[in-house]
Each structure stands twice: as structure tokens, then as C-alpha cells.
């Protein structure tokens, strides 16, 4: 008989919703809040989009009792956290970068690479690309989300944009292959 009572109590405990087990007991009758209207799919937050972000609507009252956990910097890719770096220039006889770049590990960055078409030029830097997580490369409004990058080459005039998160601290370079001059490289220091 005792086993039947214990089984009935355990069965009742396991069939209770999880929210009911953690939510405090309500003293007043619950009111139903209007449901939040979902944002259209086109208004989703694209981390590299320059359009203003849509304003969130009010959350239902039931969400107030949900317990949230801190799993780290989940907002790392939000537009407000992104920093635009000075552009890199690929032109015959001109410096690639104006100065060194100082980055913070965990920082979200975007950099433009502009080529004037005066010569077929590339930027190579496998060590740099292994020290960052590349979110996307945009060329002619085509978004590419690569697993890895080693170099970017321009055969003609054009522009590319790379967004990335700096990860591994150290000093890295993106340089024009075959060049030895200090002006033919961009130096990135990740702290």
C-alpha cells in the first residue's frame, strides 16, 4: 500500500509543469497580458546591417516568472557592440594602413578593404585569420560566412568588408604577398 501512495505522489510531482514548481504562489488572480506581436522576418537584427534595429514589444506577464541564467556575453554580435575600424587600402605604391590597430579580445569589429584597381593585389594573413572568428565577408552586397580565410585578392577595383570577433591575444599582420616594406602591411594587436 505504501508503494502505491509513494508512486501516486511521485507521479503527481512529475506531471506538474516546471514553471509551477519554481513560480511563487500568486495571491491575486492572474490577468492575461496581450501577446507580443512578433516582428516581421525582414526586421530581424542583422549584425552587419546599417538599418536601425526594431523596437521590441512588451513581453507577456508570464515571462516575468521565468528564471534566466547568465551564460556569458550573448550580446557580443549586436550592432551597438560593433566597432568600425579605419579602412585598409590596396593601391600600387600606397600604404595599406594608416596606423596599427589595437583590438580587445572578445571585441566585435568591422573593417573595409578598398582596392583602386591600379594593380592586382592581395592581403594575406593566415595567422591573423586564425586568431579571429570571421562572422562574414561582404563583396558587392554578397554576404559570405566562411569557415576560414587565408587571403583576399583583388583583380580589379572593388571593396570588401569583413566583420569579425577578435579572439587570441597577440600581434598579427595582414600583408601584401611578396612585399617586404612596412607600409605594405596592416598590424593588428589583440589584447
TrEMBL record:
Signal peptide boundaries: 1-20
Keyword Signal: yes
Low complexity bias: start-end ranges: 29-42, 52-64
Top-level taxon: Bacteria
Region (Disordered) residue spans: 29-66
Keywords associated with the record: Signal
Protein's recorded name: Uncharacterized protein
Lineage per the UniProt record: Bacteria, Pseudomonadati, Pseudomonadota, Alphaproteobacteria, Rhodobacterales
